[in-house]
Amino acid sequence: MTYSLQLYTVRKPLEEDLAGTIARVASIGYTNVEPYNFVATADQLAAALAANGLQAPSGHAPLLRADQDEIFTAANKLGIGTVIDPHVDSSQWSTEEDIKATAAALNAAALKGAGYGVRVGYHNHEFELEAQFDGRSGLEVLAENLSPEVVLEVDTYWAAVGGEDPVELLKRLGDRVRFIHIKDGPLTKVDKDQVAVGAGQVRVWDVIAAAPALEVGVVELDDFTGDIFDAVTDSLNYLKAGNK
């Protein structure tokens, strides 16, 4: 299993000292990271990754709201093989027609991305699961309308907050899921309630086992009340130990 760290987790230290933060992430033991909004910092980030032997198999960027050519060019510079759109506004998940329009936009982005050798994906929050259509969640409606080339990165914590059993959801989505966000906590909508992986209510190992085509498990905390580096260290140690 390959583990990565979503750099949004350490966004505050990253903004203060990008090179030093990347070096610290590497010293903790991470070998992969998932950058976010990486166009503006692509040159500096590429240098820091190379200096610390880190890879970036995936990255988050607003594909449906920004210049796709700039995003894919930056992805190539960083060695990012899959660019994942992290957010389509909750207002766009109230009807199947809106969801189909989002799928069509992602399919078009994937066609453009293919010209750069970059795959396209989508990452959920809770509202895509809260939206229900004849027993199917909005995320599943999206998946039904995506081209085979478009993948999903399921945020398993937000899926649970949205009312789904993430294990059963992953089983239903099957090979479409190539990445997951691994996070933990009491399953509330309060970001600061999140804790290190293994210290909350998520059935982490069941979740990981439920994604048959999983390529990378990405550790993320949207926020944390303590020292964020303690949380990302404890998360990786838990995952490496395989402590069930």
From TrEMBL:
Entry-linked Gene3D superfamilies: Divalent-metal-dependent TIM barrel enzymes
Origin species: Arthrobacter wenxiniae
Name of the protein in question: Sugar phosphate isomerase/epimerase
Alphabetic keyword roster: Carbohydrate metabolism, Isomerase
SUPFAM superfamilies according to UniProt: Xylose isomerase-like (SSF51658)
Residue ranges annotated for the Xylose isomerase-like TIM barrel domain, each copy included: 23-200
Gene Ontology MF terms in the entry: isomerase activity
Pfam name, any one: AP_endonuc_2
